[in-house]
Fold each of these.
Amino acid sequence: MTAMSPTISAETGGALPICLYCAGRSYTPLFENVHDRLGYVQGVWAFWRCRGCGSAVLSPFPKSSELASFYPPVYSFRLDLGRESAWRRFLARLEYRLYFGPQYEAQARRVLRGVGWRDGQGRRLLDVGCGRGLRLLTFRRRGFDVQGMDLQPEVVEYLRRDLGIPAVCADVHELSSCFPPESFDLITAFFVLEHVPSVQAVLENCIRLLKPGGWFVGAVPFVDSVQAGLFKDRWINVTEAPRHLSLPTRAGMKRVCQRAGFDRIMLHPDSTLNCAGQVGISLFPGGTITHFYGGGRLGAFVQRVLAGSLTALAIPFCAVENHVLRRPSLGMVFAHKPDTPERDAGP
């Protein structure tokens, strides 16, 4: 059963979970009158800021049983997008070569550099919320013994059948029941934590599955970023409501990792290219994968071209945002499992 955080009634006049990052109980308004950027889920939402760590939580907070219904059939990138037309297939391959492939390679390099390994030889990796496995293929090329986990049965079957990657179909909150304890050297979760109703529970499941000295690496959007302050309620990660249940700050992300039992917690920017893509889609939201590859016509194509062009132009801005101002829109948290279990201090 999916875990849920306890709910409280605050100034909002409605039920909100205790902060998913610091367990705070007091909120102030942050973004109001938010609509789903994909137009897939009808409704109006708001994000409220935790007074303790500054992280944001969605209001009204959905029930666990509703979450799967928020995702359209075409949501994330895969190589078989646009299979119904030759020119869309061509564009999907071109986008992979120019944007998604380089992004995955950059993320793999960042992961290895962050944990201090040259490659993945002799190490087991689990990717939580792995999708169609394009990132896993990148890690496999770097020597890791890779395994995937996803909620969608057809995705898991595709990984097993077409890519030869072992995978399990499970809810992220049931992860620790799928493998023996201390099974993995590295667990990754790219843009998963902001979608789950109990961040700490997911991290606790991950730490059980890590070997002593292993690492969790999660990519998340940061609500205290330059982009969030600049675009406000037009920022792509805000308009991902109701799929985004929360938006952490850097301080909030560190706190929840500490609460889950990790040490040596570090935050690094995601790839500059990926952060630049946030600028493009924030300003041209009609150019998403869902709009274009999900059956959109000329308008979606034009917006996707404009978003791609703006992405290229935004790379210098995002380099400054990431490495000079150190307030990236997308970041990676590196969290280390202690090499030896903590002992009780005794009387």
Amino acid sequence: MFRKLGLLFVALCLLPVVANAASAPAAEEFYRGKTVRFIVGFTAGGGFDVYARTIARHIGKHIPGKPTILVDNMAGAGSLISANYIYNQAKPDGLTIGHWIGGWVVQQVIKGSEGIKFDGRKFEWVGLVVNDNPACVLTKASGINTLDRWLAAKEPVKIGVTGAGSDTHYVPSILKAALGLPAQLVEGYKGTADIRLAADSREIQGGCWAWESLKPTWRKGLESGEVKPVIQAVPKKHPDLADVPNAIDYAKTDEARQLIQAGIHNTSAINRSFSLPPGTPKGRVAVLQKAFMETMKDPEFLAEAQKSKLDINPISGDEVAKIVASFFELKPNIVAKLTDILVPKKK
């Protein structure tokens, strides 16, 4: 009897190994001749688009069967349109990967938009390419080149915004509330590329989003001094921005610090994640998660990322899922305050 129980125990322990060994041939058979699409929630030329296209050029060789990889842009509502599409319309077959602002998960928690048609806990998460380090940059034409000057500005500084769930919205909104930054959010832009164009034409005076995106896409402006970072909002200062003030250091109350921590630091940690529709077969989820992390270590991918000045600091899909779950455990008072700051007031 004990011998039978021992054999049963060994067999049970080997089941995951056997399953994984069997999944590779099945995945190769499935993906051979297929096309995997990345759906980017912003316009071409922005940071999300650049990251997705760089990954797309390399991930195919790490997926069994070596499928064709394409990138499509589905811009609108700060990437909410694409998030809803991935959740509700994309087939859960492992052939459609979404790349949209993770901040929409927080909007779900605070009930910040009636347009949210998903439950963030039910997505299958492929992985995260880099945790965001948000910064606000202002144009030389604005006449403001330091945080102290911004705080002392007599007129609100016009900041471009793509949508309520994006970092272009929640970063300046929370900084405005927590630090008293004089800012006027100008909404309606489809992507950060449009915000850059508006700033260059003096329609607005700057924007706030991830340094990982700002650095490669607004490189000429940064190098020429036409735009300058004046504040960052990160747990620890970014090495590139050692001389730029950090928002949390300017918070004067515990509530202000909690708002920055929960609303910016934690939200930014999941912004650049990649997701699959709910119900995607677990075997294909595992294949794509593995391919994603292998791509993050691919020498050719890393060389291209370095050339394009793209920061890479990946975490696994399982870790992304844990961070997403943590937003549903925020204390009620912080949820209420974030709701007051981030949810548009009904007129």
Amino acid sequence: MMTPPCWICGSPGLEVVRASRISGELSSKEFAITDSAYGVTGELSRCPACGFMQCSELTDVLGYYETLQDGAYEAGSAERSRQARDVLRIALRFKPSGRLLDIGAGSGVLVEEASRMGYDAQGVEPSAWLCERGREKGLCIHRGVFPHPDVTGLYDVVTLVDVLEHVPDPVGLLRDMAQVLNPQGIAVVVTPDLGSVCAHVMGWKWWHFRIAHIGYFDHRTLNRAAEKAGLEAISVGRPIWYFKAGYLIERFQAYWPLFLRFPLPDFINRRVIRLNLGDSLQVVYRRCSDTSS
């Protein structure tokens, strides 16, 4: 049977590098933002031409995101707000004001922080439940996917934080994003880095190997996708994450033998840990002067 082409470079003949670890019928639970079934993926194939790795069997996933509910995500909103502020501080260096669009906005954590910083901010999110959480806070969150009929005009800043790895047409999404940027606008893209030291050390146990992640980038394949979409990188860094200590320890305990796992005292959750494992990319892009590519 002929395998699908590479989502980045279009080359045929992808090589299967890992069989599917999915057992049973999928539901929106496996696509939760806080899912901790690390190492469980669909069948993964690598492109011999560009090195991009993709899960070609999971392309029709929108329905899972539309019905997704994730109470643990909302419980960590304070820590996610701190991370959003860090992302926005990067944007402020290039565009300190203007219209901002957050694609894959969740419950609007970044939209809310951007509004506080003076941006005219709105978001797009497929989950009806997360959209409702954002609207309860008075935020402008459009239910659906991007492009969206209610998202019109041009934007000074577009953010795409931990979204690109979830879509089967990453070049198309980046191209659509480029088309709504003002000529001097910027896009901030955050995505896991398959080429990182952490990814190599952890192997298939890396926490970014999850059912919901169907595309795996490194610096080279991410920039190749962006260039095809008419974008050029102007800043490259690593994002910082914030977690309650209890949440983080529970995630690490998933790697421990059962006899080493222990219940956590309540006081641990009051401490927030600032973490940068260097296994995600944070790239700022602008539109190329020649977008014919």
Amino acid sequence: MRVGARSTAVMAFAALLAAGAAPVAAQDFPGGNPIEITVLFPAGSSADVSARLLADGMSRRLGVNVLVVNRPGAGGALGYRYVAGQKPDGHTLVWNSNSISTTYYSGALSFTYREFAPVAKVLIESPVVAVRGGAPWKTLAELMAEAKAKPKAVTVANSGTGSHTHISSVALFKAAQADVVDVPFGAAQLVPALLGGQVDTAVQLPAALASYVKAGQMRLLASLTAKRDPSFPDVPTARELGYDVELEAWRGIAVPKSTPAPVIAQLENVIRATVMSSEFTEGCERLGAHPAFAPAKDFANVIAAEDDRLATLMAAIGLKKQP
């Protein structure tokens, strides 16, 4: 065989081996190596608590450690940047949410949701309006009346500039034509600030507040959902009270965009089994969250539709910076 022909044959055989190696590697995933879930907010936040619940179930089913690592900052932008830059091998995940769109359109992130491949939608949470248990406002109407009568007197905490709770807060108070002061605490600082009287009210996801509500230390005035949250059946929706604001928050798992499809499929199956389990459902109930599994294809549609909706909303309320 001539040298050139031999070289061509060797290259063809190597290519064949490489082509056959990819499915084997994906089939062996995770190969005994740990998996890391980046959470975009601090320990103790609603995102953190629910991510740890998911990670526990995934660890048992995969037989490897699934670790939660908190990378907070810039409404989620720091964590998104980190994961987007990692090797697309299924070992680095992000606890994705509506924040992938809010951070982009607020100008904190230079790329869109398309930098990630969706794996599975996991749960939904509904932002709520909360005050201290001893606050003078017993209803949302009373709070709005004061905010309208005294412009810039009422302070409203959220989880950070560009976060989902920030967008929700601005949308609600603009709908009420109430001029308030937004205070972008980090998620971990919001609860002590509200309990300590540093702010008057907060718009937050319920996982961080549920235990304080049950203990009587906080009171919920409204939820920003289409219908009443079954975790808080006595709390009216903003729509019931005359404000056309509905901003449900979803959470799910995403990976860097070039992650192999077989790896994504395996992660999707493990997440499905975890979300459908009784321990996950019971854990969500304690947090005021609700399991809402959707496979990768359907989750992709959810993300795209929400991105369009948030672009329109953020433009309407003056918070959209990206085109």
